[in-house]
TrEMBL record, chain A:
Residues 9-104 form the Sulphur oxidation protein SoxZ domain. NCBIfam families: SoxZ_true. InterPro entries: Ig-like_fold, Ig_E-set, SoxZ, SoxZ_dom. This is Thiosulfate oxidation carrier complex protein SoxZ.
Length: 109, 287
């Protein structure tokens, strides 16, 4: 696959104090470091997303570390309470140092 | 009193045993596939005339609750990542002619709607049936002046997935009246019922005679192909139909024919016909 591409699903609006469900998915091979190259017999070096963070208006609302047992294209679903309008910022950190980011705005009515 | 109790206990034991046998024997799950609570997919249909089975059932019914739920939510379905990638390829210029798929097929939406449900089709130039993968390669060579994709190249799988996904929910329909399709169907049928390999299995052994049963830990389906290319959790990737054919043949411990060979194209014509009327599920999610 081409470079990892994040997908995020956040409701466009919520009522004040509502608990919303956020779904995230990123395309990534999550190479565990345990597999061998079939032709050369060499270990394929580990390359996984090792950290995922979600911030709302600069404040962390959810974060987790990931380990090699997490399968390809990791899907993370969690809930968050929305007290004010603002922006959710999602960050995935790759073993090679790359950082993949995306943002979603939410309105409060 | 004691006698009544023991009788009751026996009755209960019988009930428990028969319940667990039912669970073990498996069979298709009684469930409905509605994607995103919007698009209902036909996963159980009456068989067409001359079909050896009474009812055609999608492989979706033979998977676990969790796997079925993955397919029913287009956001969670990892195959949708490949649909998005396929759409990019569709619109990307490649080859000496400076064209993308979209350059010729301008009204992509109406052009693609239903297209994926109608393959394999007769190709008058090649005088054999072709599937979507071969159609893409034909376009690339003849119109885009680009190199054809190698079998199972990542872009080939993504583009095929995108094209077939545009027919989501539409019934699979192979036109056997074109060209010499009938004789390819005959050849496919013969292959379907021919036992091969050290294990001496034919396609029909598992998918006709024993579907709904377990072969070791695997729950056998009818082997319908309405969901291909399919996202298989085992590979964490899209799996093309000819890859799956080869996998099945390998598992019978037989030598397997090359992808897109006459044998596998005949098998594709026949097996696709066996699922006539089932809704296209691409990208389906399987074990």
């Amino acid at each position: 696959m081409a470079s990892p591409k994040p997908r995020v699903k956040v409701p466009k609006k919520a009522s004040q104090g509502e608990v919303i469900t956020i779904k995230t998915l990123i395309s990534h091979p999550m190479e565990s470091g345990q597999r061998k190259d079939k032709k050369s017999g060499e270990l394929i070096p580990r390359q996984i997303i090792n950290k995922f963070t979600c911030e709302f208006n600069g404040q962390v609302v959810f974060s987790c570390d990931m380990d090699p047992a997490v399968s390809a294209n990791p899907y993370v679903e969690f809930s968050a309470k929305v007290n004010e309008p603002g922006t959710f910022k999602f960050t995935w950190v790759d073993d090679d140092g790359s950082v993949y980011e995306t943002e979603k705005k939410i309105a409060v009515e | 009193m004691a006698k009544t109790e023991s009788k009751l206990a026996t009755l209960l034991a019988v009930a428990v045993v028969s319940a667990s046998t039912a669970a073990l024997a498996g069979g298709p799950a009684d469930d409905k596939l509605v994607i995103d609570d919007e698009i209902e997919i036909k996963t159980r249909v009456a068989a067409p005339e001359g079909h050896p089975l009474d009812e055609l059932i999608s492989g979706w019914h033979y998977r676990t609750d969790e796997t079925r739920a993955l397919e029913a939510d287009s956001f969670q379905n990892p195959g949708m990542l490949y649909v998005e990638r396929g759409e990019e390829i569709w619109n990307t210029v490649d080859g000496a002619a400076g064209k993308s798929c979209a350059s010729c097929h301008e009204d992509s939406e109406s052009f693609l709607k239903g297209l994926g449900a109608s393959y394999p089709k007769w190709d008058a130039d090649a005088e054999r049936p072709i599937n979507i993968e071969l159609q893409i390669n034909k376009c690339r060579e003849e119109n885009m002046e680009a190199k054809p994709y190698k079998f199972d190249a990542a872009d080939q799988k993504a583009l095929t997935t995108y094209i077939k996904h545009q027919s989501l929910g539409m019934p699979v329909e192979v036109d056997l009246t074109q060209g010499d399709m009938e004789s390819w169907w005959d050849k496919g049928e013969e292959l379907y019922y021919t036992r091969t390999g050290q294990l001496n299995l034919s396609c029909a052994t598992c998918h006709e005679d024993y579907n709904g049963n377990y072969i070791r830990a695997d729950h056998l389906s009818q082997g319908n192909v309405n969901g291909f290319p399919t996202y298989r959790l085992k590979q964490s990737a899209m799996v093309s139909l000819h890859n799956r054919f080869r996998g099945c043949i390998r598992d019978t411990r037989a030598a397997f024919p090359p992808a897109f060979s006459d044998d596998l194209m005949a098998l594709e014509v026949y097996v696709t016909w066996r699922g006539s009327g089932l809704g296209v599920e691409t990208p389906a999610v399987r074990q």
